[in-house]
Amino acid sequence: MPKRPLTSNYGQRSNPFVWTVAIVCTIIAIAVIISGIAVFSVYMIYRPKMPYLVVAAAHLNNLGYDNQFQTMDVDMSVTVLAENTNSKVDASFSNVALSVRFHRMDIARLQAWPFQVERNSSRMLDYPVRSTPIPLDSGAMNEVALAINRGVINFGIYGKARTRWRVGIFRSVKFWTHLSCRLQFFIDNGTATGRDCSSKTL
């Protein structure tokens, strides 16, 4: 049986396209590694913290309830703080969209134009909440009647905001921060419990 001759690739030229692809991939890999090291180094230097919202104060000025027409009207004041605890970077807030709820119903919307909060500071957002008479279903009516008997009524503040800060020379980093707070108001004097509820970044 005839033997096949032995062959060798030694001395043959490699395809220039293969070398080009290998060089490009190597450059990209090195760039990714350097970028990762740079971002990590800047993060360790700045150690940025997430900006957030906090319900700093709330007061129930008046609660109106009409059993005959099955409606309720609310007059309250809410103060929300936009906090930036970073010592080296400023933060900005946008798309602030909060709502005051009672019995799964939105009774008021709290919004704000985009704004900036300097490092290690906060910005106060004061909201006067004055609703028109709100139609109530049977469940909401029962909840109001029970609250009046107890002298305490529950409201919630829910929503989100877009936060952003810039780290060093790199592009700004954006996050959503979500607020979910339950407030209890004493009907006789309007004071609230459950304040200092802060938002969470997701």
Automatic annotation (TrEMBL):
Keywords: Kinase, Membrane, Receptor, Transferase, Transmembrane, Transmembrane helix. GO terms for molecular function: kinase activity. This is Proline-rich receptor-like kinase. One of its GO terms (biological process) is defense response to other organism. The keyword Disulfide bond does not apply. InterPro entries: NDR1-like. The chain crosses the membrane at residues 20-46. It comes from Rhynchospora pubera. GO terms for cellular component: plasma membrane. Its main location: membrane. It is found in: Membrane.
